[in-house]
Structures are given as C-alpha cells and as structure tokens.
C-alpha cells in the first residue's frame, strides 16, 4: 500500500524541523501576546463557499467535499482563516469590544496537481488579529511574519504590498478592467477567458506571461481607491518604514480569495522557482459578516510550511539530542529490575534508551558508545540481588557501584551537571 498522491508521511528524521518551526513560532508570538487556536479539519461546506467565494479556483476545483451519514455537505478545510472566523462568532470571542490575537498551525487540503513545495495535504502556520482596524495592526502582523522568517534563517525575500480598496471601488474597477480586456479577449489564456466573466480582478494574478503583457497597459486598481483606502495605504507604508521593513508596491497583487479588502501582501523568494510565495495575507474586515455574524475588523497571514522547509533545511541542520543514559540489563530478571529506574529518568528529564534484547554486555557497551551516551547503567544478577546499580562513565572510562537509595540524588546531580536541552542541536550552515 502507498499513501495517496499528494499526501505525504512526515518521517522521524524530518519531524524535528516541524517541531523547531512550531517552537520558534510559539516563542515569537507569545512575546507579542498571541494565543494559539486549533479548529476542526472538517467544516460545513457552506462556510467556505460564503467566505472564499463561489468563483474562486478553491471552491470550483480544489475542495475535498462529501456528503456525510447525516446528509450534510462537509469539507476538509482548504485554508485556516474561515474556520477561525467561524470560531470567533460561535464562541463570541470579540464581544464587548474585546480584541483577539490568535495563531494556528495545522494541515489544510486542496485537490490540485502536486508539485514542488505544494501538496494536496499541506500545512499552514497562520496569525490573525480580530477587533481592530488601525493600520498599525497591519504593520505589526507583517513585522511578525518577517521576524519569524529571519529567525528560521529564511532571510532572502521581498515583501510586496498593495491596497485593493473596498467592494464598491473594486466593482467600479472590475467594470473598467473588463472593458479593457474584452479588446484582447482572443489573446488571453483560457483560464483568464473564464475569469473575465466570473471574477475579472483575479486575472491580475495570472501566471501567463502573454496575459501579463496585456495587463501592463490596463487600468490600475489604485486609481479607483477611495480617499480613505488611499490614506490607509499611505499610513501602512509609513509604519513599515518605522519598523525598518523594506517593501515593494505591486498594484497587480490581489490574492486568490474573495474575502480580502484594503491591505494585501505577499512575501516571496527566488529560492523556490515559480512557487515563490512563502507567506500571504491581508485584511478581511467583512469576513465575519459574510458567514453570518457581525462585521469585525480583522487581518492576518499564512505561511506554507512545506515551502518554508525547502528553504530552511538548506540553511539549518538539526540533529537529535544525544541520549544521556543507556540501560544495559543482562537478563529478563535484571530487565524487570531496570524498569524501576525509568520514573526517575523522567523526573529529571534525562534522555535514555533501554536494551530490551538483553544482549551481551560487550555489545551493549558498543551500542551505548555509538549512540554517544554519557552513562551506561549496568544491571546484572549481583545488582538485583543486592539492590545496587553499576554506572559506567563512558567518556571518563570509570565505573562505580551505587546502592539503590543513592540513585535519586545521583540522577538529580547528573541532570544539573549536564543541563540537558530539550531542543535539537542546531547548526546554521548559511544565511543566519
């Protein structure tokens, strides 16, 4: 049997990178007082139809949806924001003018052709701020994204920003854009020919070079922005400069989901080829209203973990922490006796391995040395009969016998002496 196409196992040699990203994110967001939230992977299909938009590729082509045993249409979540907006409404998290600063880490699902850095089950790390529309909030969440990427040694990137205004401005712009593109209809790629009738603004994000050439002389969305949106965009630029964040204004940047308004941005890299976006986000002040609640000002972003890992693993090498203690019982009786040590090792957080094969002492010492253990605890008939343990200090080539009553204090001192880290060993190979 094989895993489904686009659904990959995360093996032990890779999982330490996932844990490293999670722990760096946890520390970074905790400093800014963001709290983690976890939402279900299954939601009512209508949630995504209302939020993402009926004319988007996600809804039309990429959703994993099915009818359950209760005749309900449910879907695997294709992104994280809609689920969090639903949770905000359901649990009344923003009642009485309370703001919510949230982050998430989890799997998402889209049925699309698997390719470099993009799978059908993929994972997102996201951050969202609900309850405030000040442009400074937009700048802060962008700062948190760039700061996190730098901590993960992903520091070769460019930040592109834009304002897409409100719905009224976009409708006026879409009318002018459609009129312009109709003159070049036969020259557009097939995907753009469909979008010109359903969602013309998404053509700005086309990857077809000929379509992009046509768009060079198209009307600019920026020309249709209302004064409030323009002033907001100017303030965001000023705030980013105050945070020493470099950016590029890209007036063709629109993002792929319908719920965005005003601020949109992407962080891109040249290290991933055509799949160059590692972080994207923006403001979605009307999202909660779209799914049946009150409008709540909100802004956020998402980072694709698989793409992030492709960059990070070239720059950071993680190795597992070596075990501290190797337990070497000589027979089944001494193995049973050895189990008494395990609670103490957990008490003092000492990483260990126990040889359940009860192989020869020579082989066990060789295994302990290969695993770079500091101590080998030897348990034989003598130790069992006299309530002792024998400790062999592998690095110092000495061996000592202790009475069982001394073991608790001994292990406590060992823990203090070596100050073992819970984190993997980290080596920055370049671009720290």
UniProtKB/TrEMBL annotation:
Keywords assigned by UniProt, alphabetized: Aminoacyl-tRNA synthetase, ATP-binding, Chloroplast, Ligase, Nucleotide-binding, Plastid, Protein biosynthesis
Signal sequence extent: none
Tagged with keyword Chloroplast: yes
InterPro entries: aa-tRNA-synth_II, aa-tRNA-synth_II/BPL/LPL, Anticodon-bd, Anticodon-bd_dom_sf, His-tRNA-ligase, HisRS-like_core, HisRS/HisZ
Subcellular location, record wording: Plastid, Chloroplast
EC numbers on record: 6.1.1.21
Protein's UniProt name: Histidine--tRNA ligase, chloroplastic
Organism listed in the record: Dichotomaria marginata
Gene: syh
